[in-house]
Design brief:
Elements lengths: L10 H16 L1 H5 L4 E7 L5 H11 L5 E5 L9 H8 L13 H12 L4 E7 L4 E9 L4 E5 L7 H4 L4 E6 L2 H15 L4 H23 L5 E4 L6 H16 L2 H5 L3 E3 L4 H11 L5 H20 L5 E6 L5 E6 L4 E7 L6 H7 L4 E10 L2 E8 L8 E5 L2 E2 L3 H12 L7 E8 L1 H10 L4 E7 L2 E2 L5 E2 L5 H6 L1
Parallel strand pairs: 1-5, 1-6, 2-5, 6-7, 8-17, 11-12, 11-14, 14-16, 15-16, 16-17
Antiparallel strand pairs: 3-4, 9-10, 12-13, 18-19
Helix pairs in contact: 3-9, 7-8, 11-12, 12-13
The structure holds 1-O-pyrophosphono-5-O-phosphono-alpha-D-ribofuranose and uracil.
């Protein structure tokens, strides 16, 4: 008889658990260990970037948000460069005018949740001053500047890329006003600099960087309130999520409710009987497969209901197959067959020797290159096995974007490895674990999945 005594969670316990979670997530240690959400805001000179950043910060007033400006990283000019600057002949709009290394170091530290000392630049002297400005770890870091999306190394660090789009004539008028009023310049020199350097740099670096943006915000004379609403809602959603989901758009963690937590508690309990282990692993596998199928394309289809009315719905995608990683992945085949009758399922065997692995066997559908592939393996640990298996599929001609990797538990090293190496592969898991120990076991983990499932 199956042991069902793990069943319900009473309301009082649920409230207590929720309160414990709230206390935990608000503690200083928790906040310090979190990676912030990094947003880049670019656009031409005087396009309204700072106003966009201010509006985002105002809306996120209950979060810790800091703003890093590209302008802080202008290099102190050499005497020769200084002479050119004095003759209005130095290109401040070129990426080489920046201390890109210093900027990346700063960004990296903030990303790791560490404090930084940000340089302070004096625009009138064209030099860094002695003092620095301390910036503490934050939930959200906004990096603002004309070249933020033009520098690949900066772009690669960002979780959200915004481009502020404003007409050239509006920007020039604003730039003249600003430089005359606050940077001690006259109108003629501002226009000369604009024609000689600002506009060509816009045409070469800044304008083209718009194609890297996730969001292009039209920003003319009146403020774009709708865009700011959408951006801040998206950030709030991301902040509610686990760090790794914020970072990788190709990672999906199934919603965690008490059913899911309860099933995981049983899988993770070393005293769980083999029967129960199989029963609950199968239940999660079924949910995982359904979550994976939810990512496949569909076509609209209209049918007639028994009441004689039309129902407009969708038709499932064709050209799908499964591939299980032997042995544990085979435990997920039944769930896939229950959802997709008659589906073809291939197999890959990766032999692990500690850190290195070899593919020792593969049997895949002959036409796999034309199919979507649900790659099945319940445990993602270091990610070595998954990467090997994915590479086999790519070598067979499967498109990266057509691979969905399904696993019951995923450890952060494996998530980083797979999501970074194969950014178009969708990784779907039911829980993220803490890590991998010195024996390459996932912790807290479920132990050796295959031994427990097949014993
Ligand atoms: O991400 P990694 O560190 O590579 O670890 C994950 C691999 O480990 C497990 O298989 P295992 O080698 O235990 O073989 P089994 O399925 O035959 O039990 C699991 O099913 C994965 O294939
Ligand atoms: O913890 C682990 C790691 C690899 N494989 C498993 O089955 N469990």
């Amino acid at each position: 008889m199956r042991d069902r005594s793990h069943g319900g969670v009473n309301e009082e316990e649920a409230v207590e658990a929720a309160e414990r979670e709230l206390r935990r997530t608000q503690s200083p240690q928790f906040r310090q260990n979190r990676h912030p959400f990094l947003i880049g805001v670019a656009g031409g000179t005087a396009s309204g970037k700072t106003t966009v950043c201010d509006r985002i910060m105002q809306r996120l007033h209950d979060q810790c948000v800091v703003m890093l400006s590209q302008d802080s990283f202008y290099r102190t000019l050499t005497p020769t460069e200084m002479a050119l600057a004095k003759e209005n002949n130095y290109n401040f709009d070129h990426p080489d005018a920046l201390d890109r290394k210093g900027m990346m170091e700063c960004l990296q530290k903030l990303k790791e949740g560490r404090s930084v000392e940000v340089p302070v630049y004096d625009f009138a002297l064209h030099a860094r001053v002695e003092e620095t400005r301390r910036m503490d770890p934050a939930d959200v870091v906004i990096v603002e500047g004309i070249l933020v999306l033009a520098m690949e190394e900066v772009r690669d660090q960002l979780n959200m890329k915004i481009y502020v789009d404003t007409d050239d004539d509006v920007r020039l008028a604003r730039r003249i006003q600003r430089d005359v009023a606050s940077r001690g310049r006259d109108v003629a020199s501002v226009i000369e600099q604009y024609t000689k350097f600002v506009k060509p740099a816009f045409d070469t670096f800044i304008g083209p960087s718009r194609r890297h943006a996730d969001i292009i915000v039209p920003w003319q004379s009146s403020e774009n309130v709708v865009a700011i609403d959408l951006i801040t809602e998206h950030i709030r959603l991301k902040l509610r999520q686990h760090d790794l989901i914020r970072i990788y758009s190709n990672l999906e963690v199934m919603p965690s409710n008490f059913q899911m937590r309860g099933m995981h508690t049983i899988l993770r309990d070393r005293d769980t009987s083999p029967n129960d282990f199989v029963f609950y692993a199968d239940r999660i596998n079924r949910l995982l497969v359904e979550a994976g199928l939810g990512h496949l394309p569909f076509r609209e289809k209209t049918v007639m209901t028994p009441t004689g009315h039309k129902y407009t719905g969708v038709e499932f995608a064709r050209g799908l197959c499964g591939v299980s990683v032997i042995r544990s992945g085979e435990a997920m085949e039944a769930a896939l067959r229950e959802c997709c009758q008659g589906i073809k399922i291939g197999k890959i065997l990766v032999h692990r020797h500690g850190k290195s692995e070899d593919i020792v066997y593969e049997k895949l559908p002959a036409d796999i290159s034309r199919r979507y592939v649900l790659l099945l393996d319940p445990v993602l640990g270091t990610g070595n096995t998954a990467c090997k298996a994915i590479q086999v599929l790519l070598d067979k001609g499967v498109q990266e974007s057509k691979i969905l990797f399904l696993c019951i538990i995923a450890a952060p090293p494996g998530i980083h490895r797979v999501c970074q190496t194969y950014p178009q592969v969708k990784v779907i898991t039911s829980e993220i674990d803490t890590g991998v120990d010195e024996n390459w076991c996932v912790v807290p983990g479920v132990g050796e999945f295959g031994d427990r499932y097949y014993c």
